[in-house]
TrEMBL record:
Domain Heme-copper oxidase subunit III family profile: 5-119
InterPro entries in UniProt: Cyt_c/ubiquinol_Oxase_su3 (IPR024791), Cyt_c_oxidase-like_su3 (IPR000298), Cyt_c_oxidase_su3-like_sf (IPR035973), Cyt_c_oxidase_su3_a-hlx (IPR013833)
Membrane as UniProt keyword: yes
Topology relative to the membrane: Multi-pass membrane protein
Annotated compartments: Mitochondrion inner membrane
UniProt GO MF annotations: cytochrome-c oxidase activity
Catalytic activity of the protein: 4 Fe(II)-[cytochrome c] + O2 + 8 H(+)(in) = 4 Fe(III)-[cytochrome c] + 2 H2O + 4 H(+)(out)
Protein's recorded name: Cytochrome c oxidase subunit 3
Task performed by this protein: Component of the cytochrome c oxidase, the last enzyme in the mitochondrial electron transport chain which drives oxidative phosphorylation. The respiratory chain contains 3 multisubunit complexes succinate dehydrogenase (complex II, CII), ubiquinol-cytochrome c oxidoreductase (cytochrome b-c1 complex, complex III, CIII) and cytochrome c oxidase (complex IV, CIV), that cooperate to transfer electrons derived from NADH and succinate to molecular oxygen, creating an electrochemical gradient over the inner membrane that drives transmembrane transport and the ATP synthase.
UniProt main location, coarse: mitochondrion
Source species of the chain: Zea mays (Maize)
TM region positions: 43-61, 81-103
Stated family: Belongs to the cytochrome c oxidase subunit 3 family.
UniProt GO BP: aerobic electron transport chain
Length: 119
């Protein structure tokens, strides 16, 4: 007997993609460092890491789309999460850029004694 859900949220099943993405990022980082220091096999490891990352991104988003469209797990309450997350990300980026340009303008218009009073 299948018990009906008592809430409108989607509890995801265990997924191999977070650890797969982590291993791809590790291979990309180590391969990039090896390539920049001219170690043998660095370019190969960098390429394999990037391919692994792209594959992980593809299959992870495929699973998310499958959950939302075919399986119907993304209810209205579930859809609000990514929407609020995107809005908060954009707001935080606007605040970061505002602070960055404010600090740059302040430093150029009123340089401190520590830097010799010049910009």
């Amino acid at each position: 007997m299948i018990e009906s859900q008592r809430h409108s949220y989607h509890l995801v099943d265990p997924s191999p993609w977070p650890i797969s993405g982590s291993l791809g990022a590790l291979a990309t980082t180590v391969g990039g460092v090896m390539y920049m220091h001219s170690f043998q096999g660095g370019a190969t490891l960098l390429s394999l890491g990037l391919i692994f990352l792209l594959y992980t991104m593809f299959v992870w988003w495929r699973d998310v789309l499958r959950e939302s469209t075919l399986e119907g797990h993304h209810t209205k309450a579930v859809q609000l999460g990514p929407r609020y997350g995107s809005i908060l990300f954009i707001v935080s980026e606007v605040m970061f850029l505002f602070a960055f340009f404010w600090a740059s303008s302040h430093s150029s218009l009123a340089p401190t004694v520590e830097i010799g009073g010049i910009w």
